[in-house]
Amino acid sequence: MEMTMTLRSEIEKGIAEMGMNFSEFGEWSGINRGIFSAILNSNPPKPISLNQLERIAKALGHEEGWMFERYIDECFYDGRPNRRRVEPFLIRCAELGRVGCIETVLSRLLEDLRHLETIFEIAEALYADGKIAQSVVFYQCIVQNEKYHQSERLAISHYRLFWAALGDNSEQNLRAAIEFEPFCDKLPDDKRLDGLMRLVNIYVSLDKREEIERYSRELYSFSQIVYRNEEQRSKSSAGYIPLKTRYPLVVYYGYGLMAMQEVNVHRNEFAAAKTYIEAYEDLSWFVGLDEAGRREVEKFAFYARANRLNLELLLGNQEILEECAAFVEQYPNELLQFASSVLKSANKYKYSADFVFERFAGEIEKYLSRTFTKDKAIISFNCYCDICYQSSLYFLERKEYAKMFGFVLKGMETVVRINNKSMFIKLAALFERYRDFASAEQQQQYKKILGGISEHEENDG
């Protein structure tokens, strides 16, 4: 009880320094006089609640988190964890970034692994409140201590950590995806749908063809199964409650079709890709659509229109270039995908794409200054890197080396930022192969980029 008595001694010392007696301080702090007396004078003393500690700290003029290290024993006042004190204390520690206090409390809780459920519930409460970064330490605790590999709690913790880890660093995203993969099929249906969709997104951004196909097929298949199950439940149960998913169910169904379309595009199986576009361009028949679902159906109709144009570009149809340009001017969010497809097409079929640089080069740079959601950031920056690579090939074909190296270097600066090693290798190989045509300034910039990478790797090490 030494720590507990020290906490009370500090309180008594602070009150004395303010020149107050217990009764006056109780009124000053807003704590009932009888409760305050029991906290300080009873034998044994009454445990202090977190709310009371924070009121006392404020009344004494201390910063938030005052005496938190010494408050830990209050959470285990009789040698056992008291949930009414442990939970709010851990949540408050998370909010204030008091990681040391959290680790100490978790260590004591884990003396009995039955408390993993409490730790998990705290993590879920923080996550639901939007405090994703603060929840990570608790999910990590579950992952490190859960003994049952098939546990849904363990799968959900991996899913939350996967989502929390995603950002604009490609290698970090890849590591997060690999760690999450073995647990995706152990998730509840709603989270499994979301996990599969995010895995597809990550592997699309990394251009991992085998993984793209695997998870696209799984999302396509599983979304159909969930839809059929929901359709059957809605018909057979008067009290039917729809499956609650992050997005309307039609999103996962339609996204599964879009993912399979992309698989076929990668294989140059364009006729098969068109059949998937036809399948999601009108999903108005989807059972159980609410207002949000109907808005998503409209989005898929739009995606179908955009993807038909992209498909025609990849087939080398130059007659639609002006239509594509007008489409992008009307819908600027499609700019990166449009530019990438035009350049790939122009490089393959050997036609001029100068209008992309004349009309949209500045808009592409402005587009990347936006604030994106996690998923959009991953895709957008990787698409921009591909645009730089395709632009480099385009100007190499025309022997416009200054422009070629300009795009190589722009691309390299961006891939360093997002840590996309495979694209970096492609761009660096292009520079090295034609370095004799680079200006002194471009060679110096290239050297500086390489130096920055070496320094970054040393710091990481």
Automatic annotation (TrEMBL):
Alphabetical list of SUPFAM superfamilies matching this protein: lambda repressor-like DNA-binding domains
Protein name (Swiss-Prot/TrEMBL): Helix-turn-helix transcriptional regulator
